[in-house]
């Protein structure tokens, strides 16, 4: 896997894939997170949960069934061994800790593990959908996002400024530059992506963080 | 009791200003022909409870676009830009509710609970105006029941007693809403005789269903 | 229907049957209440809900299926058009007001509509099973019981002395002597069974009650 | 993950003093062979959560009769006289819970809720020690979640991924308990290959099931 051949989104998706264990039940947000399964090694297979009501989300097989869509409303399929259920049960699974990992995008994340990704007041108010339940209930919350906004502004902040999706919910932040983990000691830089220096990360990160010495 | 009714009779049980629920997720599992009946009957000032406002031309989307709603209680409006536009301009009241909480509130309304305590939304704007209750050291929000006058459901198959079977991911909110309405109308693709659905396969028992409209297709 | 040919339980069951309307969803307690369907007129058909998880409770048809029992654990059947579900859904129906009528026995009932029928401290403690949910959630609660205890003591009291099953939940009391209704004005004697005098009812009833003048 | 296990391996995941749940209503839907495994393994001081204590010789009844329980949380003990006897003599702690409330508490435990507000039990001894919360002028009891270390379920059919189908009124508490346990063991009558159960007919998805023991018969 040569990082030089990949764009930022691919680098992020590939790194997220390494966080998943064989047999994990995983919910992937819309966009970048849906690329993650492409980077799973052959001996790791995860079960995708779709919050609109099933486990075993897969690609469309054969003809499109208009009654099978993913959580973005796009045509999808179900793998053998999957199961459909209603929205109540879907969120019993999510809120009840039966989803091992949720991977979602972020507008802002902060040093306290807060996440903001559902609205920009006065501008973009799509609604939270299932995101607030996912970050509250999933055993492991991975935020997969580009390190900075399009204008270069940091997205990993000392404190989120946008309305929160969840408070103190984030476990891992994965960007094209680095991997951070939220620990009892606060935010820790746990890994640098290939060819990235600590200085580059510091420069593009507003939040203060500790550095795992093992990364060098 | 005769539960079968024609699409033409649907408006007779709907009124301006009613609170309605509609099944569906991004339009999948939404009874679009019942939605059309509302549009054709020129109903207005409705309060709609639904997972999302779908797209401009599908699901419950046209109810927004054609200004039939006074208020919507929903988890997601991002795919129908008209909802956001009307919200920002003050034409439409929008109450955004986390999707799992929306499901819980509808279930509470349908099952006689006074509410549920959920951790979802603690520390966010969702907690505004809500009672916080600590159980075993963790904070929860008290989320209250939702009910409606008429629920509009879509099922794949019904028998003449109103027993329903949903198909694939078109199930979503439909079974929950069947419990939370004074009157339940279901648009079904296939109608079968009583006894043709195995009692283990019924997803919504007929005792909850008041009216069945056969609309075929998908 | 000649009352003289019927024993007290039959008289009660036959009178309860008259309270049921065609299409009602009805939950019948163990014992006397299960006799009620025998007395339904031909043009009235009700749907029986069984709290262990189905609607459409009926008699055993053909071979016994060990997986089909009534709420007393006895072999039962299901009618065409019935449906099975889990215990959670069963009580969503019950608590949510989707059961029109529940008919159950009573140890004591009182003038405030309180019912006691689930335990006698230090003696009989079978547990409340589904009774507390049924009296709380069913639209109409009918207590069907013999007018007095075996020793002749009144069971319709000014105030229940046994631990309650439900507070202010009773709508109708039907005994072999009379029919009472709980109204906004309190307990009202609404009907005398054939051959029963008002004096006889007064003598065997501890609770004070009003009398519907139309009964004479 | 290999989910199939033999009856002989069952005791290896059980310990003295554990809290367990067992499906079933008066013994119907109870995994009686898993119950036998507990008896044979001489496990003791268990806390049992189950709808009822069944009869002396069926369902979970033998766990009471053979004194394997320290405590039972249940809605009904009347059909197993030994439960009442041990309760009155102080040998067994019995927490009686209304059946609908028991279902709600198990669901709350399995679905991450801090509790539910139910009107059931208001004005009775059931309210003792519980918080009362008024919503829209009506009193409710705050009922808290129940969870367990191991749930013992019975299903009619399972595929090798653990997807379950229950049969008739043997469903009862089984699907709820599947969510509320650290480890879920299911005794199944029929085992089929993955893909043989239609995804619309699955009643408990395999992701909730840890171990499957094929025990045939009924």
CATH class division of chain B: Alpha Beta
In terms of structural class, how would the helical and strand content of chain A be classed?
alpha/beta
| Rg of chain A | 17 Å
Count of individual domains of chain B: 1
Indicate the structural class of chain B: alpha/beta
Q: Tell me what portion of residues of chain A adopts beta-strand conformation.
A: 25-35%
Order of helices and strands of chain B: EHEHEHEHEEEEEHEE
Proportion in helices of chain A: 10-25%
Q: Name the chain pair whose interface involves the most residues.
A: C-D, 44 and 50 residues
- Major beta sheet of chain A, specifics? 10 strands, mixed
Distance between the termini of chain A: 21 Å
Helical residues, percent of chain B: 10-25%
What is the architecture of chain B at the second tier of CATH?
A: 3-Layer(aba) Sandwich
Largest sheet of chain B: 8 strands, mixed
Number of strands of chain B: 11
**Roughly what is the average pLDDT of chain B, rounded to an integer?**
97
For the record, the CATH architecture of chain A stands as 3-Layer(aba) Sandwich
Query: What name does CATH use for the topology of chain B?
Result: Glutaconate Coenzyme A-transferase
